[in-house]
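Justification of resources, computational component.

The compute hours requested in this renewal are based largely on the per-chain cost of generating structure records like the one below. Each record pairs the submitted sequence with a full structure-token output. That output is archived, and it is also reused by downstream analysis tasks.
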Amino acid sequence: MDQEVDVMTTKLTVSVLGTGIMGAAMARNLARAGHTVHAWNRTRAKAEPLAADGVRIAGTPADAVRDADVVLTMLHDGAAVLETMDQAASALRPGTVWAQSTTAGLEAMAGLAGFADEHGLVLYDAPVLGTRAPAEAGQLLVLAAGPVEHRERVVPVFDAVGARTVWTGDDSAAASATRLKLVANSWVLAATAATGEVLALAQALGVDPQGFFDAIAGGPLDMGYLHAKAGLILEDRLSPAQFAVGTAAKDARLIVEAGERHGVRLDVAAASAARLERAAAQGHAHEDMAAAYFASFDEQPDA
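The structure output for this chain reads:
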């Protein structure tokens, strides 16, 4: 449920670890909000453009987190987060707030919570919903769980990167925000896969996709997301990615694993993971996840 937190405008020193599609946008919006931002990325060249926005580029994770009020992690997966935080450990101060925004999955979040306890960090489980465009506009939906008594220290960060924060609980170790993120992503991935298969079948049967769009227009089967993802395919706008095939494949596997851990078989999520992995193997890993469309073909068609 949503929960209002009354805080005064606070300027913080925020370290952003990981400056890919989402992390770079978050770092820029934090700087625009007046916070002091230090950023690190494994490939430094990807972080360097942030210097033009007033972000200090650090050479190591430890250098990035030194003197930080809040550390924000937005990396590929849980393993990358743990490795990076291990590298930063010598410079982390006990009591530092850690906003963990990587989609890491339930098993990894348990390990990250253990790391936070070991180093005296105040952990917030804080994945986000949104892709490149809302991230750049500071319009992400932040899903967050963590202790009530320290929220005033992290809310300014969430306000800078998101349009709204949904609080799911006060125990970050329970990973309630990550659980909600996996549920939401399962719907996003299913809808993306369905869009690609509709267009692939239409091409195979010689059906103009516009005929399908006209048939469902204005009814309960019509949805903006369908048109948005179909447009990327039909208009060959798959790069730059809003959300990349490779990252989506990772998330799909996390969803399948979460289902298996809790006795639920997720056939659609498993098929989506396989499609995304096949598209990545075909050379589409860095394109938008709508490029899973190409996994329907043994030979690559004209979109």
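Strands lie at 13-17, 36-40, 56-57, 70-73, 97-100, 122-125, 128-129, 140-145, 162-169. The first strand starts at residue 13 and ends at 17.
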